[in-house]
Amino acid sequence: MTKTGVAAVIGLGSMGRGAALSLLRAGIKTHAFDIRPDALADFAANGGVAHDSAAGAVKGAEVVFLFVVNADQVEDVVFGTGGAVAVAGPGTVFVISVTQGPASTIAQARRLADAGMLCLDAPVSGGSAKALAGEISVMASGPAAAFDRAAPHLAAIAGRVFPLSDAPGAASKMKLINQLLAGVHIAATAEAMVLAAASGLDLHQVLKVIGDCAGASWMFGNRGPHIADGDYTPHSAIDIFVKDLGIVSDAARDLGASVPMASGARDLFCEAASQGLGREDDAALAKILATRAGILLPGMIQG
Amino acid sequence: MTKTGVAAVIGLGSMGRGAALSLLRAGIKTHAFDIRPDALADFAANGGVAHDSAAGAVKGAEVVFLFVVNADQVEDVVFGTGGAVAVAGPGTVFVISVTQGPASTIAQARRLADAGMLCLDAPVSGGSAKALAGEISVMASGPAAAFDRAAPHLAAIAGRVFPLSDAPGAASKMKLINQLLAGVHIAATAEAMVLAAASGLDLHQVLKVIGDCAGASWMFGNRGPHIADGDYTPHSAIDIFVKDLGIVSDAARDLGASVPMASGARDLFCEAASQGLGREDDAALAKILATRAGILLPGMIQG
């Protein structure tokens, strides 16, 4: 047995792939499963051990990262037929890095504990580039034993780990706050870039100036260049924020809170998805607003 | 005559005061006018020369900074009875650091040129702390002669100067883009902090974590602490963004552009103003949303 326990990663999307490659780079033996054969082939080509089922990847692992998209997928890969929990050894740490409602995370953590597993509620933030560099930020809550056992693995994938509580749920709540802001800021970035273009401003100059002013945001700095360059290669797709702002909206409803800004952003993401842009980069919200304004942004063609 | 020409500052609000004190600190003789006697007394106590009219402050100045609130005030202090342009020497540089519609700036610049003056369209950004430190960012457009003559003065007040064009108007357009983003981000910050409080998260922990994640923005970092600390001392008041988002809205209408996020934020600022919060710090938007959610934030008392 190696000094650092074997890892498994379920879900090799932009965040999961970055985490998996970061684990490999740290010298940790890493197994993975994804439903997409090309994602598995890429992982294997980078030195990982690819499997055609979640159970296959998890068997023998000490720490299992879940980078799937939503609560239904967690249900499927962990608790479903051929799922992970049936083959995992006692005390295996399940690191749930999924953006989902806190109630889902809490319920999953309870079922995992009942099955003799350890669990960390551990959503991540920072984008695909940081994920690939092993510099992602991790919001985490769960028992000390889970933190201890997964410490080398978290160190491999994360620039910062924020331990928030010993109870699962706190990190998922924090992630929703982050997604509320991130979703609104993407929509604001799109709206600002379209108004700038309509005003006749140079979009690269806008990026440079605003990045130094009080209008700056992480999302403006990250997504703004996609719009200025007309490059909508999906780093994070429109559909992700349709989902995430839906979770924010549901959480707000359950708490009796009012989220008009998140609702406004959600409307735009839903409109973009309904117009066939769901798999494009989320900066493609700008196309919706450009069309409304009757202008063409870089990369747009007369429709 | 000193090597660097005498300066005048009209309007000693949070940005004007910071600029005026930065000019003094750079060894530039500086005159000022404000309608508020206490602002003038503070300026005089810091080594400046206080005047009871704009004309008094401007007479003999080579560079005149306008830090008033809106286009009407520019009209008043520059072109009105006892206004600046009547006493200014030929070639005086008027630096218009006012957030107003580009059409207003362009019209003022034309009238100033007709009167033999130089003019820079030069809105600023960065907040009161940077203004006081002489580290504000300046977006500027205007003729090279105006840039040249005002260069030492701009260096005294600014951390960065972005020369955008030789025509007034470009900088005002850029400032509107900044204000669109800034206003939306303040509203998003308020909404996120209220949802976080309703979720039971520790607000100072939220500031720390989100500041390191993709939900970060300049405004979240600047205004978020006001909410977590319950301190609504006005650094920038609700009323400012009622005005600025109104200008954004008018500009968007004129350009045929759609700004749903800015409109949503504007609704919140207007609601806050109508509830008597207009003179409070703009972070007080959070109080509106907290009341809707039926929770109390730090510093709020049972109403």
Give a verbal description of the structure.
- The structure is a homodimer of 303-residue chains.
- Chain A has 303 residues and is an alpha/beta fold.
- Chain A has two domains: 7-167, 3-Layer(aba) Sandwich (Rossmann fold), CATH 3.40.50; 173-293, N-(1-d-carboxylethyl)-l-norvaline Dehydrogenase, domain 2, CATH 1.10.1040.
- Chain A contains 13 helices and nine strands.
- In chain A, helix 1 runs parallel beside helix 6 (127-133).
- Chain A is globular and about 60 Å long.
- The N and C termini of chain A lie far apart (60 Å).
- Chains A and B meet through strand 9, helix 8, helix 9, helix 10 and helix 11 of A and strand 9, helix 8, helix 9, helix 10 and helix 11 of B.
Strand content of chain A: 5-15%
CATH class of the largest domain in chain A: Alpha Beta
Query: What count of domains describes the coordinates of chain A?
Result: 2
Query: How far do the termini of chain A sit from each other?
Result: 60 Å
Strands of the widest sheet of chain A, in order across it, are 3-2-1-4-5-6
- What is the β-strand count of chain A? 9
SSE order of chain A, one letter for each helix or strand? EHEHEHEHEHEEHEHEHHHHHH
What do the pLDDT scores of chain A average to? 96
Second rung of CATH, namely the architecture of the largest domain in chain A: 3-Layer(aba) Sandwich
Radius of gyration based on Cα positions of chain A: 20 Å
Number of helices of chain A: 13
Examine the coordinates and then state which fold CATH places here, giving the name of the CATH topology of the largest domain in chain A. Rossmann fold
| Envelope shape of chain A | globular
- Helix share bin of chain A: 40-55%
The SS-based structural class of chain A is alpha/beta
The poorly predicted ranges of chain A are none
- Give the biggest sheet of chain A: 6 strands, parallel
Largest Cβ-defined interface:
A-B, 67 and 67 residues
The CATH homologous superfamily name of the largest domain in chain A equals: NAD(P)-binding Rossmann-like Domain
